[in-house]
Amino acid sequence: MPRHAYVNGRYVPHGDATVHIEDRGYQFADGVYEVITIVDGHLVDEEPHVDRLDRSLNELRIAWPVSRRALGFLMRTLIRRNGVRTGIIYIQVTRGVAPRDFRFPKGAEPSLVMTTRHMTFGSPKLMEEGVSVVTIPDIRWQRRDIKSIALLPQALGKQQAAEAGAFEAWMVDPDGTVTEGTSSNAWIVTGEGVLVTRPATNLILNGITRLRILKLAAAAGLRYEERPFTVEEACCAREAFISSATTFVTPVTRIDGRSIGNGVPGSLASALRADYLAFVGEAVPA
Predict the structure, then answer these.
(1) Whole-number Å distance between alpha carbons of 196 and 220
(2) Is 127 left (phi over 0), alpha (psi -120 to 50) or beta?
(3) Where are the domains of the chain?
(4) Can you give the pLDDT at residue 286?
(5) Which residues are catalytic?
(6) Rounded mean pLDDT of the chain?
(7) Measured distance CA(255)–CA(237) in Å, rounded
(8) Strand order in the sheet with 42-43
(9) Which residue has the higher pLDDT, 163 or 120?
(10) Cα separation of 227 and 260, whole Å?
C-alpha cells in the first residue's frame, strides 16, 4: 500500500511531501508537534493530545491551521489511507512561510504536516530485562512545557545514550534533580513503595501518558508524589521506569551502569504497564 503524508490541504505520496524552504519551522524551529499512538486503527487519548497541541499553539501565538473537528477528520483519513492499525501519527504545525525575519510575520498561514508510521510497542525482551538510561546535563530552554519542534538538545542526548549502549538519557538540572528523558517522562518507586515523578511545571513536558498513569495509580490506590528527585535517589530506588506515547510504561533496570533494585523489572512498573494496556484496550471501540 502506498504511503501518504498530509501537507497543507493535500494528501501526497510520502516521498514527494515537501514544505517551502522559508517555512519558519525549517528556519527557526518556530512550531509545535504532537505524537498520538494508534492501536487497532484508533487514536489513544486523542482529546488530551489535541488539548496539549492547543496549549502549545497558544503559548507560541500560532493560529490553528484547521478546526479541531477538521483535524480529527484529516488524521483519520490519513490513518485509513496508510492502512495503519498499530503505530503513531505525527502532527506538526509551524507559523508558516515568510521571508526570513526573527519577528513574527504578518499574514502568514500556519503550516500543517502529518505523517504516520507502522510500529509495534514493547518487545518481550525489553519487558523481561528492562532498559538502561544514562544521565546528562539538561541544556534546554526554560519553556519545556511547550511541545516545540526545537529538539536539538534531545537529539544530542539520544545519540549520547545510543553511543553508551543505553535506551534513553535522563536530563539533569544543575541542582542534581532529574527533569525527564529525551523523549519520555522519568519515574521512580521509593523503598517505601511511593511512586514519584517530577511535577508538571515549565521544566518538563506534561506527558499525556504520564497523566494517564497518574489516573491509573490513583484508581489503584497507589501512593504517589509529584516532586523532583535526584540521580542518587533514583539509583537507590526500589524501581524506576519511563513513560511516553510509544514506550507506554517501560522498566528501567540500570542508571549510569548501576543496577536499580534487584536489577530486574519491578512489580509496580509491571502492574502499571498492565493497567495501561488494559486502558488502551478499553479505549479502543470493539
Answers:
(1) 15
(2) alpha
(3) 4-118, 124-283
(4) 53
(5) 147
(6) 96
(7) 11
(8) 10-13, 4-7, 111-118, 87-94, 31-39, 42-43
(9) 163
(10) 20
This prediction has a pTM of: 0.95
> The domain 4-118: what is its CATH number?
3.30.470.10
For the chain, give percent helix, strand, coil, nearest 5: 30, 30, 40
Per-residue DSSP letters for 138-181?
A: ----S-TTS-BS--HHHHHHHHHHHHTT-SEEEEE-TTSBEEEE
Q: Which residue has the cell 534546554?
A: 140
Of residues 229, 208, 219, 225, the one with CA closest to residue 271: 219
pLDDT over 90 (residue 125): no
Look at the alpha carbons of 74, 79, 82, 87 in this order and tell me if their dihedral is positive or negative. positive
CATH 3.20.10.10 fits 124-283, yes or no: yes
Residue 78 has pLDDT above 60, yes or no: yes
Contact between 281 and 245 under an 8 Å Cβ cutoff? The reply is no
Nearest to 17 by CA among 157, 121, 115, 153: 115
DSSP 8-state secondary structure symbol assigned to residue 230: B
Q: Report the C-alpha gap between 246 and 186 in whole angstroms.
A: 14
pLDDT confidence tier of residue 260, bands split at 50, 70 and 90? very high
Query: Residue 282: its pLDDT value, please?
Result: 79
Of 157, 115, 169, 127, nearest to 7 by C-alpha is 115
